[in-house]
């Protein structure tokens, strides 16, 4: 059953846009949460920015607020890079290297599974292992391949925030520790610095809330970008990535999230959240005030309100 109209007719488009504007007005005054500052450059974000965008699988985008303001994608990149790894290296190789279990721990936890695999690709250890796999397959071209994949999901060429990249690299010792630990178990092979530079750069790619909505809609549309019509990922990769997003996309809040909101999603410390309702829509939110888990406070409220009002819970 279709939740949103197949194409925007005035009578059906208006309620959705009106809902987005009302939600923006409702949660805009919230001043809970803090802008991430563990990467110094991220601390410069404007805490008041707030954008909400919805893209449907028939290619329409509805948006309100600061949906054109660029910010760094951060951990949201992990979802697309996982899909890219599945398609580039083959599921068998990727699944032998990275688990699909929720970790129940913070995104930057150094703990691995009992068999020394990363828990999943949505936490740093798994994402770094993923970068390692893509580097193994493509060498120094890895970052450009990742940037192209993210751009294909968004439907446009994406830039990198070099100041954030430098800041991530300068303060990234925890990720270095994770990468070296992984290398002792063969979870990454090769040049750790090169792999980490790829990871730091991938986190520093600039997107907007609108881009996130289109990325979400591309996941929802089984790997076909509904705006450009380009096939950007296989059905297998999209379905498995959405599965891991459902169980682990919101860090140690993932259980609460899937229980209450009921959509596969991924957040980033830049303040973005992407969510997807298969066959229907993608949701992109940007608001940099984060809760203790590293999730956007207004983003969570917006997705919860949207899920409740439009009955988007998948289960
Ligand atoms: O590894 C890091 O610390 C960041 N570059 C990515 C973190 C991130 O977005 C996790 N978020 N909630």
From TrEMBL:
<feature type="binding site">
    <location>
        <position position="75"/>
    </location>
    <ligand>
        <name>substrate</name>
    </ligand>
</feature>
<feature type="binding site">
    <location>
        <position position="124"/>
    </location>
    <ligand>
        <name>substrate</name>
    </ligand>
</feature>
<feature type="binding site">
    <location>
        <position position="168"/>
    </location>
    <ligand>
        <name>substrate</name>
    </ligand>
</feature>
<comment type="subunit">
    <text>Homotetramer.</text>
</comment>
<comment type="similarity">
    <text>Belongs to the glutaminase family.</text>
</comment>
<feature type="binding site">
    <location>
        <position position="251"/>
    </location>
    <ligand>
        <name>substrate</name>
    </ligand>
</feature>
<protein>
    <recommendedName>
        <fullName>Glutaminase</fullName>
        <ecNumber>3.5.1.2</ecNumber>
    </recommendedName>
</protein>
<dbReference type="GO" id="GO:0006537">
    <property type="term" value="P:glutamate biosynthetic process"/>
</dbReference>
<feature type="binding site">
    <location>
        <position position="175"/>
    </location>
    <ligand>
        <name>substrate</name>
    </ligand>
</feature>
<keyword id="KW-0007">Acetylation</keyword>
<feature type="binding site">
    <location>
        <position position="269"/>
    </location>
    <ligand>
        <name>substrate</name>
    </ligand>
</feature>
<keyword id="KW-0378">Hydrolase</keyword>
<dbReference type="GO" id="GO:0006543">
    <property type="term" value="P:L-glutamine catabolic process"/>
</dbReference>
<feature type="binding site">
    <location>
        <position position="199"/>
    </location>
    <ligand>
        <name>substrate</name>
    </ligand>
</feature>
<dbReference type="GO" id="GO:0004359">
    <property type="term" value="F:glutaminase activity"/>
</dbReference>
């Amino acid at each position: 059953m279709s939740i949103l109209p197949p194409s925007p007719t005035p009578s059906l488009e208006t309620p959705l846009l009106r809902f987005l504007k009302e939600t923006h007005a409702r949660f805009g005054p919230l001043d809970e949460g803090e802008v991430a500052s563990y990467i110094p450059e991220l601390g410069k974000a404007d805490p008041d920015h707030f954008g909400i965008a919805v893209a449907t699988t028939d290619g329409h985008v509805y948006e309100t607020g600061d949906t054109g303001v660029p910010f760094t994608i951060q951990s949201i990149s992990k979802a697309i890079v996982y899909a890219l790894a599945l398609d580039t290296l083959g599921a068998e190789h990727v699944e032998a290297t990275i688990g699909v279990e929720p970790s129940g721990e913070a995104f930057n936890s150094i703990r691995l599974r009992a068999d020394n695999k990363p828990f999943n690709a949505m936490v740093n250890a798994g994402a770094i292992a993923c970068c390692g796999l893509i580097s193994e397959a493509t060498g120094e071209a890895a970052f450009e391949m990742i940037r192209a994949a993210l751009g294909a999901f968004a439907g446009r060429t994406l830039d990198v925030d070099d100041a954030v990249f430098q800041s991530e690299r300068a303060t990234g010792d925890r990720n270095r520790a994770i990468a070296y630990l992984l290398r002792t178990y063969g979870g990454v092979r090769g040049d750790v610095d090169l792999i980490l530079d790829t990871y730091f750069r991938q986190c520093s790619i600039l997107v907007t809330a609108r881009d996130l909505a289109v990325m979400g809609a591309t996941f929802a549309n089984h790997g076909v970008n509904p705006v450009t019509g380009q096939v950007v990922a296989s059905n297998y990769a999209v379905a498995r990535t959405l599965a891991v997003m459902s169980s682990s996309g919101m860090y140690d809040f993932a259980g609460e999230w899937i229980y209450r909101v009921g959509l596969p999603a991924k957040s980033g410390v830049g303040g973005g959240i992407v969510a997807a309702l298969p066959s229907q829509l993608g949701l992109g939110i940007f608001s940099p005030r984060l809760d203790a888990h590293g999730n956007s406070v207004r983003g969570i409220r917006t997705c919860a309100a949207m899920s409740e009002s439009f009955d988007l819970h998948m289960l």
